[in-house]
Write a structure and sequence with these properties.
about 170 residues; alpha+beta; three-stranded antiparallel sheet; elongated
């Protein structure tokens, strides 16, 4: 009989994760703004495809929609919905914004554990742990760097102790 796991027992992203996502998305929006300005200048000087007023209104509308989505909606829902739980010899990873997906990964299936951090993540002491299995990768997104190292060592320890137990059983047979 399978045990029911309460979602409230799961761990969330680090509290600085939303700030990190907002900062990263802000940089993307600044790049989008620069591209729109370049399009306006190119149209005004060389292309003359349509009037600049139409391009400016369309670009501003696009920028406002993207800003609301990338600065408020996506970080809030990613933070709210992403969770992970380390239980016995498996890890549960819950992801998604619209469609929620939960992966249960037994430690013995994990082939590689990578910890990565970008320049924005370093500012907030965050990291992403990538768990590689034969079936694909799962990520623990934007968790505290120290916690990421702890998780990496915990998985390695439990995986090694599980391998030792299996070898003992094989030797006894």
């Amino acid at each position: 009989m399978s045990e029911v796991i309460n979602v409230s027992n799961y761990n969330y992203m680090d509290s600085n994760a939303k700030k990190s996502m907002i900062l990263a998305n802000s940089i993307g929006l600044i790049i989008l703004l620069l591209v729109l300005i370049c399009i306006l200048i190119l149209n005004w000087k060389f292309l003359h495809l349509t009037d600049n007023k139409s391009i400016a209104i369309g670009g501003l509308t696009l920028l406002i929609i993207c800003s609301i989505t990338l600065l408020f909606i996506i970080p809030t829902f990613r933070y709210k919905n992403f969770r992970y739980l380390i239980k016995n010899n498996e890890i549960h990873v819950r992801t998604g914004i619209v469609f929620i997906n939960t992966n249960i990964i037994p430690f013995f299936r994990i082939q590689n554990i990578d910890i990565s951090e970008g320049f924005i993540m370093r500012k907030f002491r965050l990291a992403t742990v990538t768990l590689s299995t034969a079936g694909g990768n799962s990520e623990l997104l934007l968790i505290n760097k120290d916690k990421a190292e702890e998780i990496k060592h915990l998985i390695k320890e439990r995986r090694n102790s599980e391998n030792l137990n299996q070898n003992d059983v094989k030797l006894k047979e």
